[in-house]
Amino acid sequence: MHNRIALFRTERGASRRELGEAVGVNPQTIGFLERGDYNPSLELGLKLSRFFEVPVETLFSFDPFPSVASILANQESRS
């Protein structure tokens, strides 16, 4: 499973500790999630999506997410 937790966490300016406290897990769990070493439970996935105020499918996918650079390049080429 692929995720964008690190991207959203960095954008929000939250540390792993702050995110962990907000969703009720150890900061190490956040690190495991970000590296893809651990898949969250449904409950944790929903808590994370609530914290970031995005749909759960914006954070998690079975397929790799495109890089931010490629998304920006596609937007520029359409302009």
From TrEMBL:
It comes from Sphingomonas oligophenolica. PROSITE patterns: HTH_CROC1. The lineage of its organism: Bacteria, Pseudomonadati, Pseudomonadota, Alphaproteobacteria, Sphingomonadales. This is Transcriptional regulator. GO terms for molecular function: DNA binding. InterPro entries: Cro/C1-type_HTH, Lambda_DNA-bd_dom_sf. The keyword Transport does not apply. It comes from the Bacteria. Residues 5-59 form the HTH cro/C1-type domain. Gene3D superfamilies: lambda repressor-like DNA-binding domains. Keywords: DNA-binding. The keyword DNA-binding applies.
